[in-house]
C-alpha cells in the first residue's frame, strides 16, 4: 500500500507536485498517468525517498521511505534504465545491491533467472541493449521480493516482445497481491495493463477511477461521425442549425454532437445524398487528451 497525503514539491517557481493525495492498493496495477512534466517522476522520487517533499507525506506500508528498516524488501523500483555502472557485470551490480541491503547472494541468481538474464550474468551492463538494461533494472527491483513495486515508464523504447514481457510480469505481480504503481504518458498502454488509473496534470490530481469506469465516463465524449456528401457545405450548415458541431473538409464532414442515425435521418429529410456515414468511437487516448488538455506543458497552439 502506498499513501500520499497533501504531497507537494516546489522547485523554485515551479510547483512540480501540488497537494496530491491518493492511495495505491495491493493486488491491483494502478496506472499513474499524466502528460510530460505533470509531476509523475517527482512523485515517484518522493515515494522512494530520493527527493524530499516541500510539504505533505508519502508512505509505503505505513512508513516514510527513510523509516523502512529494509527498504529493498518493502519497495522495488525501476526509475530509469542504465542505472547500473557500465563497467560492472550484471551479476556484480546485483550482488553489490544485495550485500548493501543484507540480502543473500543466492537471491542474485534467482532474480537473474526471473528476468531471463542468467546467460548474460557475466556481461558488463554497459554492453547491454535497452531491453536487457530494462531487465537488469527489474531484477534489481525484485531483489528484496518486495510487496510494493514502482515503475516509471517501463516500456519506453522497448520492442513489442519486451513490452509484452513487462506487461505480463506486471499483471503477474498484481495477481500475487503486490501493490504496483506504473507511470506512463500513454493511455493506450494503461488500457492494457492497469486496473485503476490516477491521472495528474500540472502536479494536481485530475481523475482517479477504475479503468472500466473511466472508459464508461468518457465513452461517447468526442465520438464523431464521418459524412461524405457532394453537398458538403450546405449540409454542414443544416447540421449546425440542428445543434451539431461540424468540421468541413473538401468532400467530407466530421460531425460531433449528433449520432450517426440522426445525421442519416436529417440527410433523408433534406433529400441530401450521402456517399458515406461512418460513426467513429473516441479512443481512451483521446479521452485522456481531452481530460488533460489544460494541463499540457507545451501543447500545440490551439
Ligand atoms: N530537479 C528539478 N529541478 C527543477 N525542476 C524540476 C526538477 N525535477 C522536475 N522539475 C520540474 O517539475 C515538473 C514535473 O516534472 P516530472 O519530471 O516530475 O514530470 P513527469 O510527469 O515525470 O514528466 P515526464 O512524463 O516528461 O517524465 C516539470 O515542470 C519539471 O520541469
UniProtKB/TrEMBL annotation:
InterPro entries, A to Z: AAA+_ATPase, ABC_transporter-like_ATP-bd, P-loop_NTPase
One Pfam entry name: ABC_tran
Keyword terms of this UniProt record: ATP-binding, Nucleotide-binding, Transport
GO molecular function, one term: ATP binding
Gene3D superfamilies noted in UniProt: P-loop containing nucleotide triphosphate hydrolases
CDD domains, per database record: ABC_BcrA_bacitracin_resist
Domain ABC transporter: start-end pairs: 2-227
Keyword match Nucleotide-binding: yes
PANTHER family on file: ABC TRANSPORTER, ATP-BINDING PROTEIN
Family from the record: Belongs to the ABC transporter superfamily.
Name of the protein in question: ABC transporter ATP-binding protein
Species per Swiss-Prot/TrEMBL record: Nonomuraea rosea
Amino acid at each position: 500500500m502506498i499513501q500520499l497525503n497533501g504531497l507537494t514539491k516546489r522547485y523554485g517557481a515551479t510547483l512540480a507536485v501540488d497537494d496530491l493525495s491518493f492511495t495505491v492498493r495491493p493486488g491491483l496495477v494502478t496506472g499513474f498517468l499524466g502528460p510530460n512534466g505533470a509531476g509523475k517522476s517527482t512523485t515517484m522520487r518522493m515515494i522512494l525517498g530520493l527527493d524530499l517533499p516541500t510539504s505533505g507525506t508519502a508512505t509505503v506500508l505505513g512508513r516514510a521511505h527513510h523509516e523502512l528498516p529494509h527498504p529493498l524488501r518493502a519497495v522495488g523500483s525501476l526509475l530509469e534504465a542504465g542505472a547500473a555502472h557500465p563497467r560492472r557485470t550484471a551479476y556484480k551490480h546485483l550482488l553489490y545491491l544485495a550485500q548493501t541491503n543484507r540480502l543473500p547472494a543466492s537471491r542474485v541468481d534467482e532474480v537473474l533467472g526471473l528476468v531471463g538474464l542468467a546467460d548474460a550474468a557475466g556481461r558488463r551492463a554497459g554492453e547491454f541493449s535497452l531491453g536487457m538494461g530494462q531487465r537488469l533494472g527489474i531484477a534489481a527491483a525484485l531483489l528484496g521480493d518486495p510487496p510494493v513495486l514502482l515503475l516509471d515508464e517501463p516500456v519506453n523504447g522497448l520492442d513489442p516482445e519486451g513490452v509484452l514481457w513487462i506487461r505480463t510480469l506486471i499483471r503477474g505481480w498484481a495477481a500475487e497481491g503486490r501493490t504496483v504503481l506504473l507511470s506512463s504518458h500513454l493511455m493506450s498502454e494503461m488500457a492494457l495493463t492497469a486496473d485503476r488509473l490516477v491521472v495528474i496534470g500540472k502536479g494536481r490530481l485530475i481523475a482517479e477511477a477504475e479503468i472500466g469506469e473511466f472508459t464508461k465516463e468518457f465513452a461517447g465524449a468526442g465520438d464523431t461521425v464521418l459524412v461524405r456528401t457532394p453537398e458538403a457545405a450546405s449540409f454542414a450548415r443544416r447540421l449546425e442549425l440542428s445543434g451539431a458541431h461540424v468540421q468541413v473538409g473538401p468532400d467530407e464532414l466530421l460531425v460531433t454532437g449528433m449520432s450517426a442515425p440522426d445525421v442519416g435521418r436529417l440527410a433523408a429529410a433534406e433529400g441530401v445524398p450521402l456517399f458515406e456515414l461512418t460513426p467513429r468511437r473516441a479512443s481512451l487516448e483521446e479521452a485522456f487528451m481531452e481530460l488533460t488538455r489544460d494541463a499540457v506543458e507545451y501543447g500545440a497552439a490551439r
